[in-house]
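Extended Data, panel c. Modelled sequence:
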Amino acid sequence: MNKDVVRQWLVAAAVLVTIVINALANILPLNGITTGEISDKFAVYFVPAGYVFSIWGLIYLGLVAFAVYQVLPAQRDNPRLRAISWPFLVSCLANIAWLFLWHYQQFLWTILAMVVLLILLIVIYLLLARSGEKVPPAERWLVHLPFSIYLGWISVATIANASDVLYYIGWKGWGLAPAVWAVIMLVIAACLAWAMAVLRGDPAYGLVIVWAFVGIAVKQASTPLVANTALILAGACAAVVVLGPILRSRLRA
């Protein structure tokens, strides 16, 4: 069998296995506790309201679209899809590993799995953009867009995961209040969204950050410093997403 055909079907199988295991983690649930129930044990401020995590449905829908698109015979020799296949396969392993580590409360190891997942998604993102070629609209919608959303969410999730781990080990924050650290993390995430919108022309990444920030404002309503900062930065991110094309044109001028 052609090695590209094997690669295509491995990618499709990896998407299916990742989705099934993530679903079973909460349906069973793994180790008798759901993902959200574990998250609620951590008294940290960089955590959004529960409804925000529904974005995983959109992420997995996008990955299914990617899997179907890349398995088409017409995409067998697509060099961009060929380049991202192996990093993607390893990213699925990292996703699944994180889930087991989280549910079995191996929190120090979860940050390693999350960082590996983040790095691999960055690699995929850069590989897709590396050629600079104009890609077909179908590929932009079914490959580039899903990975922009996925990367945006994992950027937020990595910060949240790090906050959880620091809380778990009893880190004192170098004398700064937890709410202040949450504000610092919000600013860092906002800067990433602004950079992606202006420098990369990627509104999807920024909109994911907006979605997360509004959810943080809702969840942390009893802490005005965090909630108000999240809302202000959400508005700023939304504005940069809208004005991104204008700002990009001025940077090129």
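Residues 1-32+50-152 form one domain. This feature is highlighted in the accompanying rendering.
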